[in-house]
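Researcher: I'm comparing several assemblies side by side, and this is the next one on my list. It has 221 residues spread over two chains. Same procedure as the others: predict the full complex and return the structure.
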Amino acid sequence: KNEVEQSPQNLTAQEGEFITINCSYSVGISALHWLQQHPGGGIVSLFMLSSGKKKHGRLIATINIQEKHSSLHITASHPRDSAVYICAAIRNTDKLIFGTGTRLQVFP
Amino acid sequence: GAGVSQTPSNKVTEKGKYVELRCDPISGHTALYWYRQSLGQGPEFLIYFQGTGAADDSGLPNDRFFAVRPEGSVSTLKIQRTERGDSAVYLCASSADRDGGYTFGSGTRLTVV
């Protein structure tokens, strides 16, 4: 079992839909990253959070440390949001433990 | 620089050859990380530098892999006697400190033929 699990693995949505991607982890962490990777592109850090909730534009990330769970929400989704979204847990040793990613496709 | 720079962006090499991959982190970032991402999978940790020293090299798959960061800025990942299974995108990331966010480079796509 992976230390960081994401669901769903694949997600298809119509433009405008509200999207939720979930991340659960089984290890102690100091913080968690949400990352975005477009096809053939590099990795972009969207959020780093250790508690509560962060918002940036149409993106919202939440984390519940007690439940070892985080969610990434996208409001009013757009085709340009199509990408792989990866959650990565930061262990105390500072290295990232990556989830396997969620491939999102948003159709017009 | 403004971001994390990795060179080359693409490298094709023959099985058995030696390759070097370079990472130029954001100026002033003391922490530097190497990850490897195989097709269809999430990145996996290789090695982490704090300053010039390797603080954690537990992710290096075997002794064909080695990385250095002699002056605490640019890092080079070195792979000896490359194998086809080494083909992947090698990602570098840097961070200002333990509580800072990570900035990733665009990666080096290594193909061993």
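Model: For your comparison table: The mean pLDDT of chain A is 90.
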